[in-house]
Amino acid sequence: MASITIRNLDDSVKAQLRLVAAQHGCSMEEEARKILRMGLVKGDNNKISLGSKIQQRFADIAVEALPSRDRNEPPRSVDF
């Protein structure tokens, strides 16, 4: 097995990787391997639709873990 070192990784990216790995119950290294495997799909990438790729990417995330808004709140104005 090969090893790589990733230099100049933003602290925010590392923090996100740590959180996602914890949510999936694995190490940061294993989560990074999963992400790389998913990004480097073997075979013809055109056979997998964008919707299927998105579904595969987020399949492990529980719906209850996603933030939700109170439907009774009035819409917020856009802040440019």
Write a structural description.
By secondary structure, the chain is mostly helical. It has three helices and no strands. The chain has helices spanning 11-24, 28-39, 50-57. Helix 1 crosses helix 2. The chain is extended.
Any idea what the radius of gyration is?
17 Å
Profile the largest sheet: none
Q: Which outline best applies? A: extended
Helix content: 40-55%
| Distinct helical segment count | 3
Helix and strand element order: HHH
Summarize the structure.
The protein has a domain at 12-61.
Question: What are the defining features of this structure?
Answer:
single chain, extended, mainly alpha, 80 residues
Task: Furnish the topology, listing elements before pairings.
Blueprint (H helix, E strand, L loop, with lengths): L10 H14 L3 H12 L10 H8 L23
